[in-house]
Structure formats: C-alpha cells, structure tokens
Amino acid sequence: MNNEFNKEAFKQSVLDNLTTSFAQTIESASARDWMLALGKSLSGISNKHLLNTEKTLEDNNARKVNYLSLEFLIGRMTGNNLIALDIYADVAEMMAEFGLNLSDLLEEERDPALGNGGLGRLAACYLDSLAAQEFPAVGYGLHYEYGLFRQSFEDCHQVEAPDAWKGPYGYPCEVLRQELTQQVGFWGEVEAYKDEGGKPRRRWIPALEIEGRAWDIPVLGYKNNSAYPLRLWESRAIESFNLDRFNDGDYVGAQYPSLEAANLTKVLYPNDNHEQGQILRLMQQYFHCACSVADILERHLRLGRSLESLPDYEVIQLNDTHPTIAIPELMRLLVDVHGLTWDAAWNISSKTFAYTNHTLLPEALESWSETLMGRLLPRHMEIIYEINAQMLKDVGEKWPGDIGKLRKLSVIEEGNHRRVRMANLCVAGSFAVNGVAAMHSELVKTHLFPDFDSLYPGRLTNVTNGVTPRRWLKFCNPGLSALISQNVVGDWAADQDILKGLLKQADKKTFQTAFMAVKKANKQRLADWVKNHLDIELDTNAIFDVQVKRLHEYKRQHLNLLHILSLYHRLLNEPGFDINPRVFIFAAKAAPGYALAKDIIFAINRVAETVNADKRLNGKLKIVFLPDYRVSLAELIIPAADVSEQISTAGKEASGTGNMKLALNGSLTVGTMDGANVEIREEVGGDNIFIFGLGVDEVHSLKASHYIPQEYYESDALLKASIDLLYSDVFTPGEPGRLSAIADNLIHHDPFMVLADFADYVRVQGDIDKAYSDQAGWARKAIVNTASMGKFSSDRSIRDYVDGIWKLEKVSV
Ligand SMILES: *Cc1c(COP(=O)(O)O)cnc(C)c1O
Question: DSSP assignment, residue 805?
C-alpha cells in the first residue's frame, strides 16, 4: 500500500484521459481505451519520478552505468509499474468500481518486443534490478518501429508478420525527449588538416547525416520512487528538405534522404545467436553507439566536468559485441573533436568500457568486412588500426617473435577478405570482460580468449545471469506469490534470499498441498488459454513438460521431439509400457532464414496433430506448440510448468535465463551440465534436478575423435524406431519424407550431438515419470527449487557487477 497515492485524484485523471485523448465515455470505452487511459495517467507519475531521479543524481554527483544493448525485451510495462509503485491493489479496486477487471485490461497492452530472446530479456531484467536497488543507470537501445516478428502457424509452418508494437495511438509508457536529439554521420572521407597551433589533425567529413531522437521509457524502482530511463534512439531524416531538387520537379529525390534515414531503425534483426554481416545492421549499430556516446559525453560536460574525469562518473557496459563501435567512437570524439592526444584519450576510454560476452558459437561471433567498415566509417577504421597496433605491441613484448600469437589476437583477421573481429576489439578496449555463468566464463578463459587471459591477467571475469523476481514471480504468479508471502518473513520480491525460509515448509503436508494447488490452478489458467486459442483440451493432472525459448539446433528441441517419438512408439508397440500422462508444451520462434529450425517447428506441429488425435493413447500424450512466444506468453506458461527442459549440448548455452524463471516457479529442471544449469544444480541439490548427457569435456573429446552419429542410430533400436518415424508418412499421410531433412541431418551430421545424448535423455525422462508418481516427493522437490533460487535474482547479478566492475553507490530519491 502506497500512502502517498491519491486514489480519487488518479481515478479522475484516468477519466480525464479517456475524454481528452480518446473521446470516450465510461459507457463507450473499450478495454483498449481504458488501458491506454490508465497508461497515460501512470505515465504522469513515472515521468515525475524520472525527472526527480535525474535531478537527484545530478545533485549527488552520482556515478552511473550506461548499459548499451541493441535489444531490450521489456515486455508489458503497466502491470510491473503498478507493482513497483505499490498501487496494484488500489488500481484493481478502482477498476472494479467501473466494473472492469484489471488483469484483463493489462492483457490489452502489446508487448514491446524490441529483442530476440535471452540477451534482450537480460538487459530488461538488469534495468529492473538497477532501479530496484537504486544504482544509477541509463539503458541505451534502439527504438525499432517493428519489433521481433509476430509468429503464427499455417499448415503447421511458421508464418511471420510485422510487429507494429506502438499501435495507432502510440505506446503509453514512453516519452519523447526532443532536447536530446543527436546527429549521426555515415560514409564520406577523412580529412587531414592543421589546427590553429599548427598541429596535424584528422577529421571525418560524413556524406550522409541522420538525426536520432530519444524516447525514454521510465523503468520504475520497486517501492523506492526512483526511475531510470531506458533511452531508445529513433532515426529520422534531418529536417532540411532539398528545395532545389523539389523545385526541379524531383519530388521523390527531394525526399530521398528521409526515405533512407527512416529505414535505419525500421526493424529489429530477427536473429538470435547468429550474425549475418549486413550493412544496414552495421549502420544500426553505429547509429546506436553514436547517439548514446554523444549523449553520455554531453551530459558529462554539461555538468562542468573535465574529459579526464569521465571514467570517474560514467561506466559503459557493452551487452555483447553489438555496440563495440562505441569504443572507436569515444576515441574519435576525444581525439578529433576535443583535441586530446591519443594517449590521453586512450587513458579515458580504456577505463570507461566493460564488455559482456554472451556466446562461444562461431556463427554468433561478430566480424565485419574491413572494406565495408572502411567505407561506412572511414575514421573509425583508422582508429581501430591504431588500437590494434598498440595492442599488438603488448603482444610482441609478451611473446617476442611469435607471429602465431599476433595473428590470433589481432583485431584484423588476415586472408583474402580481411575482417574486423569485434570481440577482440572489445577485449582490447575494455577494463573488464565477463562471461554470463561460471562454466561459460571458464570456457571464455580457456577456449575463446586463452591468450588474452595471459596478456591481460584479471581482465576476464564472471557474472552469472539472473532474472527479476518482480516480473518472474510476483507479477506472473500471483497465486504462488501470495502463498510465499504468508510463509516467509520480509519482502522476498526485494530480497530473493528470503525465499530460503520456505525450506522448513518443504516437508509439511499442508504446505505441499497448498503449493501443488497453486500449481494446478496455474495449469488450469494455461489450459483455459490453450482451449480458447487452439481448441486443444489439456488434462491438468498430466505432467506439464515445457520447452520455451528460441528455436535453435544447439537448444535441441529436436532431442525433445525424439523423446516424444520414442514414447509414442513404445506406447503403441511395447506391451506393459505405461507412463503418467504428459503434456509437452513448446513455444519458440525460428529466425526467418533458418531453414532447419523452421523444419523442426513444422515437424513438432505435424507430430502434435497426429498424436493428439490418436485415440489408442488414452490421452497419455498431448503436444501443443503455442504460437508467438514472447514475454507475456512466458508469463502465462512458466507458472504452469512441472518440468523445465534445458537440454542444450554442453558448452553451447552460455547461461540461459529461462531455466532460472522456471525453477523459481517450482518446476523441476531436466538439463545438461551446461550454462547456469550447473549452478542451479549446486543450489537446489542433485536430488532436486534431473541431469543427463555428455559433459563439456566429453563433448569436446568426442568431437575430436570424429563423432559418427550413424553408429548410434544403428545400434540403438529405440533411437532407430524413433527416427524412422520421421522417414515414414505417419505424420504426413501420403507424403513420406516430408520430415526427413531433420532425420538426415541427425544421422549424417548431428553437429550438436543429439544422438549421443538420446539414450541418457530417455533414461532421465523415465526417472522423472517415476518421481512424479510420488506426489509428495515431487511437491517437496518443487518447493526446494523455489526456495533455493535466491542466487538467480538479477538483483544479485547487478550487485556482482556493481562490486566487481561498475563501482557504483546507491542514491535514494
Ligand atoms: C527468458 C526468455 C528467453 C530466454 O530463454 P532461454 O531459455 O534462456 O533461452 C527468451 N525469450 C523470452 C520471451 C524470455 O522471457
């Protein structure tokens, strides 16, 4: 309960907005109108918090983190903001007075899907945790006109549609900050000249200039009156219309710059863990960096601070290599615009940047054609050469005469088509580099950057990812939240370690029963949604087995599918084989250009149609693929899960965060020793998680000894029967072979060792089935999971960043 909140005034404000902005009465307003009017009223409060916080930080000379990310997958904001302001109950009551259900209204908000998956969602959780703990921050991203595509299925195939998330009335939780507009150059050339003192200088003369407008989405702190901006840059043509060309009758040509500029932030690239090297993407990256770095520097100078003191006040965190060009951009501003020497500028820049590595997958490691980068950003290319030259001097001193080391560590990859390696540039230009889970950070040290670890000892560190308990428990699971609050002392949403208090309830019959009743109700809520939207009946007594995440070979949705096929085969062919009823729930988007990922979606949908209709199974198996996976759908699915599938090939999933959200909501993980699964096992204990499969060392040595998947196929009868179903026409009547691309890939290539892990996966799934038969035992394990997830709060991750890297002080508003 927020004592400062004036319910009557707020009510009047919502009614005023209904008339002023939407020309509606109480009687005529639709749910959408109410939601937008509520959003506007809330915006009044959050903008006030935003400005108060800005002022307080200036008055306190606060040091800030600037979190640069090309993606922020924030999800709906209204419900979360009501919780942060501690007015959820008040507003629900107020809406009830109008005969409206608040949670129905909240469903009307579109998800701003300005990210692909885990990386963007992590950035959103981090802003939430920074604000919750009063650590000064600005999030910098892009204001894509279209977020991640909307997914539907037609004849079982994924179909993509544009996501116009702002809607016709605009997005209620954002505010335009016209005064922060920036200008950004592209192309052109570098000019040498002498300054007044006769010193030789260089400057960039761009051929194209684009304007960047700032939209702020205030991120509200949990019950603490602070709000930090998520600042999203939107590209626009510069306001000068080419009148000469217009008068010459070239109407389209006169608008040409605006056509080009408008395209820059039009759409989010829909790839997760995959880079394609397209020019528009590089332009987006530079646009993002140029606007953000200029904004940071202007703020610093406006407060009368010296350039040299920049690292005392500002730290810039690079979320993966996507914003790497911020490093040469800051150097350009310091050297070319502000006239600092190289060494003075480097002394500032190299103390300002820190970099987070998110992947070891080769296809996801960014590199750009040197030619392309040299043409688009000619001055930055010169600066990159200079950064490289300085770094290679260090290499030469450490390993004299070792050409191999120079080649390996160089920012420039040699060859016919030379490329700029963004990760190397990041390591050279940052004072700290972190991986995102203990195991991943170890692999960064030993496999990705082993020589950098000796060249710059101590620079490589770990910060294990986390998720915000406000969105991923308090908001998305009100039933469990209420039960927890009745059984622990203190506000667990502000301090997730308080959940430990549940451990002493884990063996109590009454608590077990209450816990499982909440789970059942959440399963019913999901089952109702599935009935309404997909017309499929789900039995809430069944095990709800959930795999929700981007569709990717390394995440191995096809391993899950093979297990389902093995169950189908055995239930039909193996006398006496029986299992607890199971509902397999999938949700995942595939990148539009990723053919095999789309084949896997098609196959799961086809198998689902056949299996769900097969009366011989007596309802033992159900499969549902929910379309359009996004934050709001995750909020519906995760509280309803019994089993959490985290089955990536060991060494491939840097951390995962879906694994954390699911365990926090009391589902049991079936997982490989990969990413944060390793640490989840440490926290919950080996008896409360189901681990299977090859470890990372075994994966590496099997790969080195020439893995032959066909041998597994031929020697394991159950595996063979399961794969052969994909070759048959059981799921594609009259069209055998429509699913064979997956089978062929597995038998002949299997880059992610699905077949090597199949047998152990089937074994552990049997253990899960057995464990579920003991309902009290299952309840106990589920409770221990929820109780043991304190470590995986993003509040803890942020404290790790603050203590180890950012060195921030809390500032209360
Ligand atoms: C948490 C989350 C992810 C990341 O899931 P992983 O299982 O860690 O890959 C992706 N998308 C959405 C919408 C999420 O909420």
Answer: I
